[in-house]
Design goal:
- The chain is an alpha+beta fold and 389 residues long.
- It contains six helices and 23 strands.
- It has helices at 2-16, 152-155, 247-252, 293-297, 347-380, 383-388; strands at 21-26, 39-45, 50-56, 63-69, 76-80, 83-88, 92-107, 120-125, 130-138, 143-150, 159-166, 171-172, 180-181, 185-193, 204-214, 223-228, 240-245, 256-260, 263-265, 275-280, 284-285, 307-315, 328-337.
- Strands 1, 2, 3, 4, 7, 8, 15, 19, 20, 21 and 22 form an eleven-stranded antiparallel β-sheet that branches. An eight-stranded antiparallel β-sheet has the order 9-10-11-14-23-18-17-16. It has a two-stranded antiparallel sheet with strand order 5-6.
- It is globular and about 100 Å long.
- The structure holds 2-acetamido-2-deoxy-beta-D-glucopyranose (NAG) (5 copies).
């Protein structure tokens, strides 16, 4: 009896317990930082390795860096006033990063719903964006920040909203599209709210410009894959899951990945009726952005051992009235280390499947049993009864 209870407790704690021990700090070691600077350092210790994450907004472009070390080491950060100038981690064995360094506005005159080289474009660098921290949770169970970015020269009262959330256990995000989070990945929500559009454009849409970096050979490339899920119970109407894998991840599942559903939302209340397409572009090799946190972080890695590529995520559907119809676009992705998680079936779906498969099996079994029993009885029945039949 006791053994059973213990086993159940063990299974439950493995299933729902925290897989990594986390410690997080805001602006570690920065004496000149105020409430207007945000750099979060998170250390997540697991049994085999330690994941170090840096979420940086101090240089304008939102940047997420992952570094994996085999030992229980800590990263130390040096600052020049309010900007990081050195990141030191003594046994980093792999690292990858993503940064949204620009927002593109494109005039979608053909109304195709995604950015295209032939459309007129206007780029907004986030280099001088100021980010205000609306909330932060830095506990042993969760690390999360919500920031609002303004750029007074560009967007009047409009703003960019970003939420980063690291929940170190397996689960689904509360908000649509209910992406899977694990102890090895972080949830990211980005919202483009009430941005004023460029005067010369009448069909404006927005796109996020990403710079992706990994400590793979410069000659490699990031990989794109699209999976179809069996059901759409977590994200109604959306069956596709898109994954970007770093070369190391593509080869042996121990590199970095970005995972998302090709769906964005045009209203703060997310739902099927407020959804739009999120379209991913090809990857292109680029130089490390100037004066960026990425540049500082990877300064000591030689160019040939560093893969730097860019891509766009653009939003829209033909005939949807462009950005100005709602003045709102939001999108979510996760970024993580290792094998990208696969969403499982919920209890409800398992029950449906069991009933669906169970009833025919039950019928078949009872039918066979009936026939067998009948035959057995017939064979053993007294001879005179056989004639009666
Ligand atoms: C890792 O190091 C920190 C301090 O450096 C210590 O508090 C923690 O217990 C260590 N964890 C393990 C698993 O050794
Ligand atoms: C997280 O990564 C570790 C290895 O670093 C692996 O053992 C573990 O299974 C991963 N967890 C999930 C949920 O992917
Ligand atoms: C956008 O601006 C409109 C009108 O100025 C306002 O009603 C709305 O609440 C704003 N949207 C958000 C998400 O702040
Ligand atoms: C936008 O402007 C172009 C000319 O620059 C015009 O041909 C087109 O019809 C306009 N589109 C809309 C939706 O107003
Ligand atoms: C979006 O903003 C533009 C001005 O920037 C305004 O003309 C338009 O009415 C707004 N649309 C909505 C749905 O609020």
């Amino acid at each position: 009896m006791h053994k059973q209870t213990f086993l159940i407790a063990l299974v439950l704690s493995v299933a729902y317990g925290q897989d990594r021990k986390i410690t997080s700090k805001l602006n570690p070691n920065c004496s000149d930082c105020t409430s207007e600077q945000t750099l979060v350092y998170i250390k997540a210790e697991g049994p085999k390795d330690t994941i170090h994450q840096v979420w940086d907004f101090t240089t304008g472009a939102p940047t997420i860096i992952y570094a994996i070390s085999s030992h229980n080491s800590s990263m130390s950060i040096e600052w020049d006033r309010q900007e990081p100038i050195k990141f030191a981690l003594n046994d980093s064995k792999y690292s990858f990063a993503a940064s949204i360094d620009k927002i593109y506005e494109y005039n979608d005159l053909k109304d195709i719903g995604h950015i295209d080289p032939s459309s007129m474009q206007h780029e907004h660098s986030l280099r001088r964006m100021s980010w205000h921290r609306n909330s932060s949770v830095l506990t042993e169970k969760e690390a999360s920040v919500v920031l609002v970015g303004h750029n007074k020269n560009n967007w009047d009262a409009g703003y960019i909203n970003i939420k980063l959330d690291f929940l170190p256990f397996n689960g689904y995000a509360v908000e649509l599209p209910h992406l899977v989070h694990t102890s090895n990945s972080t949830l990211v929500d980005v919202g483009l709210v009430n941005l004023s559009t460029w005067r010369g454009f009448n069909s404006s849409r927005f796109a996020l410009h990403f710079v992706l970096v990994s400590t793979d050979s410069e000659t490699e490339t990031m990989r794109y894959t699209m999976r179809k899920s069996l059901d759409d119970e977590h994200t109604p109407g959306v069956f596709e899951i898109i994954e970007i894998k770093t070369p190391e991840s593509y080869k042996s599942d121990d590199g970095g990945f970005i995972q998302f559903r090709p769906v964005g939302y045009t209203e703060p209340l997310r739902g099927v009726s407020s959804s739009t397409n999120a379209h991913i572009s090809n990857f292109t090799k680029v130089d490390m952005p100037n004066k960026s946190t990425l540049g500082v972080f990877y300064r000591d890695v030689s160019d040939s051992d560093l893969l730097v590529q860019d891509m766009f995520i653009s939003f829209g559907l033909p005939g949807d009235g462009f950005y100005k119809k709602h003045n709102y676009t939001a999108w979510s992705f996760t970024m993580g280390y290792g094998k990208p998680p696969i969403e499982g079936f919920s209890l409800f779906v398992i029950m449906i499947i069991s009933v669906g498969l169970g009833v025919p099996v039950l019928l078949a079994v009872s039918g066979i049993t009936y026939v067998l029993v009948r035959r057995y009885r017939q064979r053993n029945a007294p001879a005179r009864f056989i004639d009666d039949e």
